[in-house]
TrEMBL record:
It comes from Brachyspira catarrhinii. It comes from the Bacteria. This is ATP-binding cassette domain-containing protein. PANTHER family: ABC TRANSPORTER, ATP-BINDING PROTEIN. Gene3D superfamilies: P-loop containing nucleotide triphosphate hydrolases.
Length: 315
């Protein structure tokens, strides 16, 4: 469905992509992961014909990005990192406008409108101006607009960026749902999202692919030489999520803290550490607070720790 061959991109003298190649089969949901500046957006913008490669080619559903731009764009639904939504437009008008831009046949308009409104759960906001919607709803509108023309492939650039944990879970569920019918390529920093939704992860760093496998295989491949670990913790506290995150981030050797879920005073947290056994330090810290620990489990290997090991020193 997508065949990328030796894709190279220079910005002036700077080589942002160093001849990457990969294949994506029909029906796959593939996550493209990498630290800031790795080349994720550049790759996605080339595949969607918004940027020319310096060298190489990509064949999208049989069409080359080099000489069949119009048909490539028809095959793809693209949600850029910051989707250009029109705040004064109501959701309905925006979807009609996107259908128009994509030259969707009039006879298919009603059916497609009903489908995207339904799958993206937009019914209750359909007449509202986009500017009045929450970030989560705006992202749903962006997704709905990007697939109004029924593309075979969805390319989503950091679709959960800036969303709160509940909205992230919702968009993750939506991507899974869409993946039942479409081939999906999604870039993200949220690795738990890749583990939960993607059948494959392509890890990219400094313009090169450094790993390409199922999340499970990646985790087990690196099981023996990975010195970092993750801890899943459930706590009870009245501190808000930002405060919890900040306090835990200050513990020595912790490099990342994610609040996975929360309801009132219960917070489910993932904590990532450079140490093989981070629980001692975490416990000592929690003892100095009024938090109550409901659960604390070490997870030796997951995609986050693999990712950290592979890209260590590059962030
Ligand atoms: N228009 C541009 N001109 C010059 N350099 C650029 C341009 N766009 C991107 N770059 C550089 O190319 C590299 C790859 O950028 P890209 O945006 O593809 O990375 P990314 O993996 O998407 O990062 P992020 O997660 O921060 O969005 C970075 O070093 C970036 O500074």
């Amino acid at each position: 469905m997508i065949s990328v061959k030796n894709l190279t991109k220079y910005y002036g003298d700077f080589q942002a992509l160093k001849g990457i190649s990969f294949e994506i089969k029909s029906g796959e949901i593939v996550g493209i992961l990498g630290p800031n500046g790795a080349g994720k957006s550049t790759t996605l913008r080339i595949l969607t014909c918004y940027l020319n490669p310096s060298d190489g080619d990509a064949i999208i559903d049989g069409k080359s990005i080099l000489n069949d731009e119009i048909n490539v764009k028809k095959t793809i639904g693209y949600l850029p990192e910051s989707a250009p939504l029109y705040n004064d437009m109501c959701v309905f008008d925006y979807l009609i406008y996107m259908a128009d831009i994509q030259e969707l046949e009039k006879s298919k308009l009603n059916e497609r409108l009903n489908y995207v409104v339904d799958v993206c759960s937009l019914k209750e906001v359909i007449s509202k101006p986009i500017g009045e919607l929450s970030k989560g709803y705006k992202q749903r509108v962006g997704l709905a607009g990007s697939m109004i023309h029924d593309p075979k492939i969805l390319i989503l650039d950091e679709p959960t960026n800036g969303l709160d944990p509940n909205q992230i879970v919702e968009i993750r569920e939506l991507i899974k749902e869409l993946g039942k019918e479409k081939t999906v390529l999604v870039s993200t920093h949220i690795l738990s999202e890749v583990e939960a939704t993607c059948s494959r992860a392509i890890i990219i760093n400094k313009g090169d692919i450094i790993a390409d496998d199922t999340p499970r295989n990646l985790s087990s491949t690196f099981a023996n030489h990975n010195k970092s670990a993750a801890v899943k913790m459930s706590i009870k506290t009245n501190d808000n999520i930002e405060t919890v995150k900040e306090k835990l981030s200050n513990i020595k050797d912790i490099y990342k803290v994610e609040i996975e879920e929360y309801s009132n005073d219960i917070k489910e947290i993932s904590i990532y550490s450079n140490l093989e056994e981070p629980r001692d330090e975490i416990y000592r810290f929690v003892k100095s607070t009024d938090w109550i620990i409901y659960e604390m489990t070490k997870v030796k290997e997951n995609l986050e720790t693999v990712f950290h090991t592979l890209t260590k020193g590059d962030e």
